[in-house]
Design a protein that fits this description.
Blueprint (H helix, E strand, L loop, with lengths): L5 E5 L4 H12 L6 E4 L8 H6 L8 E4 L2 E4 L1 H11 L12 H22 L1 H4 L6 H18 L12 H6 L3 H11 L3 H4 L1 H11 L2 H4 L5 H15 L3
Parallel strand pairs: 1-2
Antiparallel strand pairs: 1-3, 3-4
Helix pairs in contact: 1-3, 4-6, 8-12
């Protein structure tokens, strides 16, 4: 199927937008446009029209038809461009279910830890730091000795998780944690992923994310 008339509504720092860009790159889809959304001031009429339920990015508009929600978009990309490269989702039904479970769990938990950096004035407490490390170690255990969560193949769960890495530097700066010391296998996996052009070109710079968090702290009055 042609990828003509392919538009991504996105926000530069969004890990969810980054997922879509990585997936498109992995499928060899480079002929698409991006429209940056102003999420804090005036969302575009196109975003409100294309995602009237959540009014959030990312939204992939393919031939005029919108597909919202990043994990849904990943599966859409995998199904529509199934003649491109390898599958993003595992072929085995159980492994597909497992990958979906961990991606969903990440989405329910990761930003609940991260947003404390800019939402609360008080320093993040030791027990909160331990909870975050325990969260990361669950994924480290799931990774095991494999090079990627998809085994030898970089795939769906890797794409869902690797955008988190852009935010690790900021979490370390604000908490004084050393995530590589705490979760060496997970950080080794992240560095391995960063060597892929699809990831390296799609993830926002960690230093820009760090600067952006100070903007968020001002916005929330926690600076």
């Amino acid at each position: 199927m042609s990828n003509n008339n392919l538009l991504l509504l996105e926000f530069w720092s969004s890990p969810y937008s980054a997922r879509v860009k990585i997936a498109l790159q992995e499928k060899g889809i480079v002929d698409y446009e991006c429209q940056h959304e102003d999420l804090f001031n005036a969302k575009s009429s196109l975003l409100l029209e294309m995602n009237p339920v959540h009014k959030k990015i990312p939204v992939l508009i393919h031939n005029g038809k919108p597909v919202p929600e990043s994990l849904v978009i990943l599966e859409y990309i995998d199904e529509v461009w199934n003649d491109k490269s390898q599958n993003l989702l595992p072929v085995d039904a159980y492994e597909r279910a497992r990958a979906r479970f961990w991606a969903d769990y990440n989405d329910k938990m990761f930003f609940s830890f991260l947003c404390k950096i800019w939402r609360q004035k008080d320093e993040i407490q030791q027990d909160e730091k331990k909870d975050f490390i325990s969260f990361l170690k669950l994924f480290e255990d799931e990774l095991g000795e494999k090079p990627y969560f998809g085994g030898n193949n970089f795939g769906y769960l890797d794409i869902a998780l690797i955008p988190n890495y852009s935010w690790f530097y900021s979490y370390e700066k604000f908490t004084k944690l050393n995530l590589e010391a705490e979760c060496p296998k997970l950080i080794a996996w992240a560095k391995r992923c960063m060597k892929r052009d699809s990831v390296n070109k799609s993830l926002p710079n960690e230093l820009k994310i760090y600067e952006y968090i100070f903007e968020l702290k001002k916005r929330f009055g926690t600076d």
